[in-house]
């Protein structure tokens, strides 16, 4: 077993002490809700909760897939909670959010992959906060076209599907996913609803090369994706994939410039960037 890389200084943070963090944590707990911030052990949880923002995780807290980079528990139990859409909407209202990010575990055990539950959650939030922006971060729904149509029919403001990594690493990093299927999802979304910006995200530090990243950028552009996030992979536990490399901040700046030069309209790139990090800011910068 190779020794683990030592975490560099730019990945060390002082934890903030802000009563807003506990307020959000308590509100989510009282509503029996889940957030990807907590389930995926996101490094930005202190900052986001302190700013009274969170990414809601629907369809339970257990995933039908077992990606080697992800901290979310494996093995879904039971049908979706029918009260969850209303509970998310209530939390949005109580937090007074004007931009909401909704994601989910992957539910290959459901006939529509949970797309109908996504649509109900979007509708519930719209009813409580009609002017709130809504971004959804969706799984691939196994390429189910009717599931993708259900998502678009609910009219989110942004739809995001993460590629996560380069083609060569998919069998190791995402063994139950498929690179070409994810590209096809993005292409379907961009062609079916051109007015809804399509977003994707990548992790780096898993052993990918710069040339492979460039190819992935080009594939995403060709598929119609225009918003991109690039962040450092951080190992959630010893049972997950090892970090192969920690990229310095200046290299993230270079990747951002490169991606913009290839045609993305906006790119968030940095060690702590995640797909929903400062999502409202990216949406506001997106072209109409």
Average of pLDDT:
85
The assigned structural class equals alpha/beta
Shape call: globular
- Report the span from N to C terminus: 50 Å
Instruction: Please give the number of β-strands.
Output: 10
- How many structural domains does the protein architecture include? 1
Largest sheet: 8 strands, mixed
Q: State the CATH topology.
A: TIM Barrel
Quaternary organization: single chain
Please provide a written account of the structure:
- Helix content is 38%, strand content 14%.
- The protein has 288 residues and is α/β, with parallel strands linked by helices.
- Helix 4 runs parallel beside helix 5, helix 5 (115-128) packs parallel to helix 6 (145-153) and helix 6 crosses helix 8.
- Residues 36-42 have low confidence and may be disordered.
